[in-house]
Queue: 2 jobs
Job 1
Amino acid sequence: MNLPEIQNEYPLYDLIRAIKGVDPMFASSYELYLEKKIRKRANIPTLFDLIKSFRNHIRINRAESKAPSHTAFVTLQGDPAESTTATQFSAKSTPLPTRPCLCSKIHLFSACPYIIKQIQPVG
Ligand SMILES: [Zn+2]
């Protein structure tokens, strides 16, 4: 008997938690979606799927709300280490990161300049 290949969903929940600080509505609905997938033992989305969905969501929202195009996040296009957004994110809380991130460094997804760059509505 072959056991089904189980993808670990915990990194996804980490990222959802990080997104909650940016967009609680999206985070909660994605959480439900993910939970349904897990319950059905269906293939769960990858971290990249989640980031892609979130970016699409932002794009749609921005188009709808006609948000002003000027934003502090443009600084993220430069050096992520220098970014004020990254420090805002990581200053919130400092639980100990235990798993390597998408960028293979040990830190929380919510403290990752790469992921923050992905999930922020960069203009
Ligand atoms: Zn990282």
Note: The pocket of zinc ion is lined by residues 101-103, 105, 107, 112, 114 (CB under 6 Å).
Job 2
Amino acid sequence: MPLLDVKNLTLEIDTGTEFVKALDKVSITVEKGEIRALVGESGSGKSLIVRAIIGAVPDHWIITADRLTWKGQNLLAMSNEQRRMIMRREIAVVFQDPTSSLDPSATLKEQLEESIPAELLDKGRFWQRAKQRKDIAIGLMHKVGIKDHQSCMQRYPHEIASDIAQKFMIAMALVSEPELLIADDPTRSMESTTKNQILRLLGGLNESKGLGILFVSHDLLAISSMAHTMTVLYCGQTIESGKVKHLHRRPLHHYTKALLDSAPSFQVNLPPKSHLVALEGTIPTLQHLPIGCRLGPRCPKARKECVKVPEERFIQQHAYSCHFPLHLPSAARSHTQNTNNIGTSTKEYFSTDRLYKSDNSDSENSNITSQKTEGNEQ
Ligand code: SF4
């Protein structure tokens, strides 16, 4: 059973004149010990998903879902108190801007020690519990790589650098020993050295503690270095998801391919001074969503069939929503159009499906990909 299971999550916002679907049938799962990346450009709804999961949305926003469960328990059916308990002990969140998430009127020591739940302390006199709080706080500071804890703990949030602040936020998040960490673009606008430190820290916590991480970001390079699986979001819809290496090697959706092509790090044969590929146009506003596939007006391969909303289809664990996916032979494509879920019983139907059979035979896989791409890509 996954830790977090979100199926067909829809979030409707009242704009004053109408209700618009800011999220439309979004599906995500995070297993124990898995790092799942959630990617998409600004305005695609990444942070809204985080808010819907943690329950931080205004009362007048309408959330519906086929499933929104934490370890099998329905989050939507819980009282606010039950949900707060889960958020306090089992799910932790790190936000984009660490200093704005901290209390400016208290020192880091006060904030960190205060956030330690009483259940984690042994029974004893108040001075013994105070000593325990101090020891736990120092241990957490060292765990996240803040070595000079003595001077750091006496400072206020405005007196520390952004990398220290983000590490401190991660320490606060780890206080209750959560099973899932939701990191909402934690490395945004950080310079590369600091970013690498934060990524190494999160990757280390995943390996040493088996911490599940939902890593929300638009930074493909950061994601490729640490995530196991990836979900791509466009305009409030999940359009493709699967293992990171499968999506990098053979994206099926045109938007995923455009995202990868726009990142120079993924273009090994890019000549010097050449232009990067970018999709024309911008993400539409919620009030002016196109009918059918939301990428339609920007998609270089759009056809008249795209005025219908594409259904989600699967090749094993690789899901995509597109009428004309890349890299699939036409026979396979017409088969997927009539089949909602292509399971293992039909996988032999696709010659390209050999890619998914062995994750270890990379050289063989890359040959298959290039042959099929030349022969079948439209
Ligand atoms: S469904 Fe059509 S418009 Fe949408 S991504 Fe696929 S080809 Fe492009």
Note: The radius of gyration is 23 Å.
